[in-house]
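Morning, I've got a small favour to ask if you have a moment. The fold is given in discrete form, as structure tokens running alongside the sequence. I'd be grateful if you could look everything over and explain what you see. No rush at all, and the record is pasted right below.
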Amino acid sequence: MKKLFHKIIATWQRKRTLRSVKFRDRKGFASGFTLIELLVAALIASLMVVIMLGFLVGVLESDRKETVKTNAQEELQSAISYIADDLQEAIYIYGAEGLAAINSELPHTQLSNPSSECNPTSNTCTPILVFWKRFTFNPDSRSAYSSATATYVGADTTEIIGCMPYGNAAQLDACRASSNPAANTRAYGRDTYTYALVAYYLKNDDPTIAGNNTTGWSQTARILRWEIRDGYVAYCGLQGGTIGNGTTIPTSSAGCPAPTQVTTRLPNNTSALIVTPIALVDTNSYFISPSVGFNRPDFTASVGVTAWRKFADFDFGANPFVTLVDFMDDTEYATTQGGNAVATGTGTTATATSTFRLPIGRNDASANARNLDCDDPSVGVGTTDSVNNFTQRVPADFNPAGNPSRLTSFYACISPNTVTARLFLRGNAIARLTTPATDRLRRVPQAGSITFFPTADVRAFGRSRIGLGK
């Protein structure tokens, strides 16, 4: 009975297998996924790819935004560090009143200015930081004397700063020999310095302003640097004094100009722009000529620095505006930013409602146009002597009349008598996402984009205190 049962089961299984084979033959295909199943799977896979691609694009865009913000912050920090280092050699910094006194002598007002950077026609540059500093010459500098028509004794018509003057011809020749070029062997010139005038500007690069050439830049705003400096008076190796003072120079002195060498500083010494106490004639012969337009200030008088006048029109080919940093914020000033109320020493942010609030109010109407907010050490320079020292905000006015750039992304607190400055910078990272930037409305800061406008500030101290001008 048991065997019979097993036979029946085996027979049934064989018949079932045969029916399955016949069924597959009859249908013409083997068992597997249907077309609908494959289409559904492909649709699901496509949706997953789209989602993953969208996620990847979002990650890449987020990374791009973070990169431009980081670059903007790094460039802003580098720029403010450079300015702070520059200020370490400052001996006088112009406050708001001092700038107003010399404004017409600065390069952005020069009508013959061929430079497209700060052309007075477009009127887009605001002077923010203007100061006198010490400039130290390289003692290994070699150059010809300033007069191309001078008669020289000996074969050499050039000199090395560190070799002037030497007591005898042997020392002079040894110093100038190529076998002894090290700067630390120069007896003279290592500590030789002259004065330089430096100006930092905030320039609005709005391309819609007539005459504003911004080719090659981001069309937001830039910080520009400009400098002119005094020359280096030449000395004779054997005579030991300035060339051209009438003293007979031995003809055996190799490399010394003839005793008839008397020159006047270029440009022509009859310039009407030279005012007292600066002499009208400069009888020095220069190893390195002064910058065209340079004029020596009077650091001895209380108003000598603010009475400074240029010698003649500047040569922007030799002393051009140099861009320190691009992509500065170009959000035009609005009264909602604050800064238009007289400073109280407690800050003015409480009265401001815009995204960017200026912590420094206006200078007051006192004799020194004092700024109590700039006195505050938390946001200003922190003055301690309120009788002899004062602070001023530059620019004094953020409106177009006193602020041609019409921007607030670079301003400063200045204490002229202590040679101290507090600088405020604000960049624009969002403009880096699509440059050159032509749609200026998209760069107006919103609540969600404030992180794209990095800021930096620093308090910098000059080398010394000279003069009591404003």
Summary: The CA atoms of residues 169 and 267 lie 33 Å apart. Residues 145-157, 178-184, 237-280 have pLDDT under 50 and may be disordered.
